[in-house]
Amino acid sequence: xxxxxxxxxxxxxxxxxxxxxxxxxxxxxxxxxxxxxxxxxxxxxxxxxxxxxxxxxxxxxxxxxxxxxxxxxxxxxxxxxxxxxxxxxxxxxxxxxxxxxxxxxxxxxxxxxxxxxxxxxxxxxxxxxxxxxxxxxxxxxxxxxxxxxxxxxxxxxxxxxxxxxxxxx
Length: 169
Hints:
- By secondary structure, the protein is an alpha+beta fold.
- Helices cover 36% and strands 36% of the residues.
- It has a 5-stranded antiparallel sheet.
- The chain is rod-shaped.
- The model has no long low-confidence stretch (mean pLDDT 88).
């Protein structure tokens, strides 16, 4: 008489079900990782945009406040600044301090460019400035203040604002 022994192991059905469950778990983990990565990238981009915005506003506000209201000039663009042709509004500003130093900033393409005291041009914020324009305003002809409009964008996110700055002197 032949004695058949039952061998231990998995049947084909059990293997298929195990692979199916493993595949579902693996696909779920991959989807979660990919969506987390995309969310992280979007958050990082928005944080960088807000950082650039804050930097620009603080830089311009500080230098304008410290400037002399009677020797601060607005130019339509950098070429007009070089030629000395002032304007009522524009994307280039020259702020002179009582110490004799000056601060010059302007929008060039989508970049914020600042000229330091040695005349070197420095691109401080690049590839995300949509609009930067300056203009003066007077309140009853007594208090002169400067306004600037700023709009920056990156990856479909946009920050737009208008800043009013009173001169200290």
